[in-house]
Design goal:
elongated; mainly alpha; Methane Monooxygenase Hydroxylase, Chain G, domain 1
């Protein structure tokens, strides 16, 4: 364990940021899973509604630095392609 006051603070700050990032990632994964489930079921309306929510969450995560902008863009592109592929 750290003995220096500033090092102790860094440990606490890192724990806080890690928890925040984990929560944001979890929320994004949940939204993506909802869209993928709707796509698998062939429910176009639910998939499109879920896609809007998922894109919003992914963009928020990217703006907060949880995801790199290219990673966020890739996730959005793949989800959109899957939703548009529903017959």
């Amino acid at each position: 364990m750290a003995n220096i006051k500033s090092a102790k603070k860094r440990v606490l700050v890192t724990q806080t940021k890690t928890a925040r990032n984990k929560a944001i990632r979890s929320k994004v994964k949940t939204m993506i899973k909802k869209v993928e489930t709707a796509v698998a079921a062939g429910d176009k309306a639910a998939a499109q509604a879920g896609l809007l929510v998922a894109i919003s969450e992914i963009d928020k995560a990217a703006s907060k630095g949880v995801y790199h902008k290219n990673t966020a863009s890739r996730k959005v592109a793949r989800l959109t392609k899957a939703v548009n592929g529903i017959a």
